[in-house]
Amino acid sequence: MSLRKYSLRGELLGSIFGSPLVTDLQNDRIDVLNKLLSPKVLPVGGNVVAYELLQTLSTRAIQSGIFDTVGQFGTVVRSFLGPLTLPYSLDFDRAAKTERMYDYVIVGAGSAGSTLAARLTEDEDVTVLVIEAGGEESHFNNVPIFAVLTQRTDIDWGYYSVPQTRSARGLNNKQIPASRGKVVGGSSSINLMIYSRGNPIDYERWQELGATGWNSSAMDPYFVKMENTTDPTSQPGYHGTTGPLTISTVSETFPVDSAFHEGLKQYGLKIGDYNANDQERFQYSPFTIRDGRRCSTGRAYLGPASSRKNLDILLFSRVTKIIFDDDKRAIGVEFTNSEKDYQVFARKKVIISTGGIATPQLLMLSGIGPRDQLEKFNIPIVHESPGVGNNLQDHPFTFFLFTTKADTSILLARDLIPNLAVYSATHKGRFASSGANVVGFYRSKFANDSRPDLQIYEFAYSFGGGAPDFYLGYIFNFDRQTLVNYALPNTFSDGTAYVISLVKPRSTGTIKLASSNIRDPPLIDFNFFTDPRDLDAMAEGCRLVLNISMTPSMQTVEPRRYNSTLPGCEQYPLDSNDYLKCLIQTITYTLWHSVGTASMGLASNPLAVVSPDLHVHGVKDLMVVDTSVMPAITTGNTNTPTIAIAERVADMLKGRVLRAKSLPYTDEYEYINDYVPYQIDD
């Protein structure tokens, strides 16, 4: 097929990358993309496009070949990024898909699994197999600004909650999307890359709940150990500089970012490093980004270790069951690859690291879980464990949208090509962050203790500015009325979005089986807002954002909130507390931070699933190492604590731990050897 340059964008892209980039088919796709991105397609202002027209555009986009599904907008941008290379290589699939024996079999190459595999294989006498259901990362997910666009793609499990009763009223069927990474690096490969350790009190609370040995002074050395901090604004004495995980800050800000950052100060809020001695403050976001590209655990840990002869990695392989012997000892797993079934065995441990949603599903399908769930689907009981799938905790959020004056934010139709040009040449510029450029924590008057209970994000784009509305409508699962009334009026306008998240929720939910087939997604019930104080706290966070938007600094970007009453909330005065609570219960999402569904605790607690050494109660040689073991959710993003857990468990399995030490200190490691486990079930 001959190559030709078709449109202005095609010519520009060809010149960017030094050679003709697009085939005839790709030219056609670019032409359709040009039309879809044109402001002439969707009217702006009062004449809001009909929902049916929006659906028609989506359908035509699919039929045109731009998408394989609505969830494949990224294929277009991926074609633009073709000449870019991945920031790391991964040596995988060396292992034969036959019966083999390893010291450790790790299920899942996510935030925890990749970390564990890399650390355990530092000992060349230890053999490890990692089994991952997804594939490698791509250059697309490594471009930070496209973080949100990785949702509903082939590297996302694409879960949805069951219909909610007290939230998500503005979403189709009241179902909340629950993205989880189905790729090397897991959710660290699709998240917003925010680096947040949580609050020291979080870990003291873990210990109070029976997670002996997991207090803040035990965790702090592992936060330092993982870090390679390059952020000049980080507080001295609280960060590491020699670890595998790079932490950087926003490389280039937008006017909406600096206006909000200054507005926070004008409102009297504290600015500084929230990972240091005081979490209740705001800062330009610390990101897990290295040289302008995502620094997932695949890049930081698994990739550099993947060439080791004692490490095998299987991709596109789905573990379906844990194998036990007659003594309830985990001896291996069953998995599928290319529609064929295999078994693999472990000499020492089987370690499950599939996350807060998939881990309880796999445990139950393997015979460990609540009796009623196992009997309902005729699953032979290996060990009755009532806590499996219970205690689900996540961070609910809602958001506000503002339009701003021209050239103050990201606007896809205007900025995609020139910013891709800069990024492809330098890995710098405005595409070198996720767009969530200011983040911080705030304590409402409804907080339980001294910890902040709210996290607020400022985004350098508004709905429709960061991607076509029909695609974002698909990602967010908006129903017709909500999409038309809340999102579309901001189409093709500069703007900003503010996310208000509750980081100390009181409500808990459940993960239950849908069937005995692992291919059927589990039933996820977040059960948000069963405690009215959760709504009160979020409403206070919404009020805070509205007040900051009125500061002199924010007025320089001329913020204008679309103030049409949200469908379903018409009975309340606009922006009254009742209206804000209604908005929160209508526009409800989760930050993908599901924890607690295989909680850590002592054997005397019937709801504890794993011991403080993360061995599953009631069986032998089976461990869980991921977010599901957290007995209570951390105050902030969960990726960083998950990596720290995996770092510490790897040391435990080596018979040592870093000596507990409270910050501040930097890059000083002292191991306690001959480590004695707190508790391992016989």
How would you explain this protein's 3D organization?
The protein has 682 residues and is an alpha+beta fold. The chain has 18 helices and 27 strands. It has a domain at 8-80. The strands form 8 sheets. Strands 1, 2, 11, 12, 13, 14 and 25 form a 7-stranded mixed sheet that branches. Strands 7, 17, 18, 19, 20, 23 and 24 form a 7-stranded antiparallel sheet that branches. It has a 3-stranded mixed sheet with strand order 5-6-8. A hairpin with a 2-residue loop joins strand 13 and strand 14. Helix 7 (216-226) crosses helix 18 (639-653). This is Glucose-methanol-choline oxidoreductase N-terminal domain-containing protein. Belongs to the GMC oxidoreductase family. GO terms for molecular function: flavin adenine dinucleotide binding; oxidoreductase activity, acting on CH-OH group of donors. Its cofactor is FAD.
